[in-house]
């Protein structure tokens, strides 16, 4: 009986090892897995930030005097030049006041000339001449004030720009002092504002110490890149304690006036990595929120190792891990293999793997 039990156990052992060999044989014969080597190289990627676009000058044009809107010389969206007449508020009252002030100046000048002639002949005192001179100065001041009020009835462009939407003003409208008429935007250059997290701000500050101005690109609402690069010129003094962000401002030349005040988009700010270790994103898998890759040793055995992602680039991770350019990393069949499995593989270059992924995404 003991002999029969031993024979039975030996049979089970042979069946078990035979099954293991068949399983291993199946993995070897099931097909070749694709692998690649990590690369270590200098690379540049772009951090992307939502932004708001403002004109370098954007002002409100308001009525300075009360009156009826007599003429409108421009239209909404029209390009105007500095000093160009835009609106005319009925000037009759102010014109009359200016003419009255001018007549008083003429009268005061005649009186002053006569009094001065008498003073020169010692007929009147110097004090009387001084009083007449003061009267003339007062008349000139009142004329200057009347002329200012008259000039305020003409609203002119303070700089080259584009007229905004009219604020419910039409010919004949009664406008009060301070009423908004329209806006004027100088779009020759644009200020683009965006918020940067503290960690990324520190990276920017470190690169800025090299003395080179950092160029950024603007991705517009249609996902196209604006033709002109921008330069980061200013950074706000304080961080926002609620968001942990700080505001940046980039300036863009806008020669074709394509972008306008109030638009939105995304800023692409470059980040340069020196000798970064790069692997395809598809080579990684997650276990309990940690990322791993499968590497293959000289015996074609699979082993998982952890990786720490430092930067995420489209289809690529820059990582810290026990890898180098000679490591062999599995890039397909990650769910089909386990630690210790023996596999056959076909090697592809890193660049060809990334290109294949990009081609699939483009289809």
Please tell me about this protein's structure.
This protein is an alpha+beta fold. The chain is built from five helices and 19 strands. Strands 2-9-12-11-10-13 form a six-stranded antiparallel β-barrel. Strands 6-5-3-8 form a four-stranded antiparallel sheet, with no helix packed on it. A hairpin with a 2-residue loop joins β14 and β15. The protein is elongated and about 125 Å long.
List its salient traits:
single chain, 363 residues, alpha+beta, six-stranded antiparallel β-barrel, four-stranded antiparallel sheet, 19 strands, 29% helix, elongated
Q: What are the SSEs and their pairings?
A:
Blueprint: H1 2-29, E1 33-36, E2 39-62, E3 67-72, E4 79-80, E5 85-89, H2 92-120, H3 126-151, E6 154-156, E7 161-163, E8 174-175, E9 180-197, H4 198-208, E10 215-219, E11 230-235, E12 245-253, E13 264-280, E14 284-287, E15 290-296, E16 302-313, E17 316-321, E18 329-330, E19 345-347, H5 350-362
Parallel strand pairs: 1-19
Antiparallel strand pairs: 1-18, 2-9, 2-13, 3-5, 3-8, 4-7, 5-6, 7-9, 9-12, 10-11, 10-13, 11-12, 13-17, 14-15, 15-16, 16-17
């Amino acid at each position: 009986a003991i002999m029969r039990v031993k024979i039975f156990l030996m049979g089970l052992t042979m069946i078990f090892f035979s099954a293991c060999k068949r399983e291993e044989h199946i993995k070897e014969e099931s097909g070749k897995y694709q692998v690649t080597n990590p690369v270590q190289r200098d690379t540049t990627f772009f951090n992307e930030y939502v932004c708001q676009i403002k004109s370098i000058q954007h002002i409100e044009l308001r009525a300075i005097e009360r009156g009826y809107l007599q003429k409108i010389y421009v239209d909404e969206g029209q390009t105007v030049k500095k000093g160009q007449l835009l609106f005319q508020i009925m000037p009759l009252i102010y014109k009359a006041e200016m003419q009255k002030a001018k007549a008083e100046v003429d009268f005061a000048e005649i009186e002053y000339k006569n009094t001065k002639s008498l003073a020169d002949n010692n007929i009147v005192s110097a004090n009387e001449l001084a009083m007449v001179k003061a009267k003339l100065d007062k008349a000139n001041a009142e004329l200057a004030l009347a002329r200012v009020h008259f000039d305020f009835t003409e609203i002119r462009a303070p700089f080259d720009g584009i007229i905004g939407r009219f604020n419910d003003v039409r010919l004949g409208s009664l406008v009060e002092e301070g009423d908004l008429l329209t806006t004027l935007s100088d779009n020759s250059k644009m200020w683009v504002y965006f918020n940067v997290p503290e960690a990324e701000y520190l990276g920017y500050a470190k690169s800025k110490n090299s003395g080179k101005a950092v160029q950024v690109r603007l991705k517009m609402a249609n996902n196209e890149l604006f033709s002109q690069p921008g330069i980061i010129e200013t950074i706000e003094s304080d961080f926002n304690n609620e968001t942990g962000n700080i505001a940046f401002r980039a300036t863009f030349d806008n020669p074709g006036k394509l972008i306008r005040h109030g638009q939105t988009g995304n800023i692409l700010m470059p980040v340069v990595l020196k000798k970064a270790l790069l692997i395809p994103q598809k080579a990684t898998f997650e276990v309990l929120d940690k990322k791993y890759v499968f590497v293959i040793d000289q015996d074609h055995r699979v082993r998982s190792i952890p990786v720490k992602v430092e930067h995420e680039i489209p289809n690529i991770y820059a990582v810290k891990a026990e890898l180098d350019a000679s490591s062999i990393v599995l890039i397909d069949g990650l769910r089909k293999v386990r630690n210790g499995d023996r596999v056959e593989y076909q090697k592809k270059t890193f660049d060809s793997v990334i290109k294949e992924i990009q081609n699939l995404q483009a289809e």
